[in-house]
Write a structure and sequence with these properties.
single chain, 258 residues, alpha/beta, Alpha/beta knot, six-stranded parallel sheet, two-stranded parallel sheet, 41% helix, elongated
Length: 258
Amino acid sequence: MRLRVVLVEPLYEGNVGSVARAMKNFGFSDLVLVKPCKIEDFGLAMASHARDLIEGAKVVDALEDAVAGANLVVGTTGVRGNSTNRHLRIPSLTPRDLAVRLGGTAGEVALLFGREDDGLTRDELLACDVVVTIPTGSEYPIMNLSHAAAILFYELSSVPPGDIPLASPENVARLLDHFRAALEESEYYEHKIEKTMLMLKRIFGRARLTDREVQTLRGVVRNLRWGAEHLGGDLEEGEEEEGRVQEDGEDEGLPKKS
């Protein structure tokens, strides 16, 4: 497991320096900054012997660039959801839960930290496969950015290396596209589609899917859509030519649309 630390629009250079220092404390070095504040002498001083991480950090203007290529995108939040209506934040893992789930996997994990005043926005949370919350006291649940980062780095530093390759983000995106198409074709409640898609995204994020597992799930959904089409529905143009699922290059020889 390779960890990519992403700070989204950090406001204070001292916090950036402190996060870099915590990263080096626990053996992490890949830092990405999205539209950061100006980092000058104070930020570098707070980084201490980790100033090389700040000097070598990748600076981008958009979150999409910061997480590009990551197998798993993990968002952090200090606001816990108290009901299923707060579906953006439920279910959330603890840092230890996340470490356990990542054990034995191989791939890149992008860990997102939001702004010191407002955290991650709704759209940024929607982009996350998994949400993590540090259990804190109810009277004052919001932690300092660098303190929260240090707790997560501590837990993730104990994740044992593994050889279970996490699915590529492109394949998971295709799987989600299949599910969305199936929901739309089945006339699923339109007002529930986005919430359902988010739930599926989070389920897949927690499941540690491999590319082979994603391919199998895509095949299951494609077969269901194929069956529905032969009962009177229509697939998207061109998809009927794929027939049912093909794995390892084998065509199962199922009938095509006439």
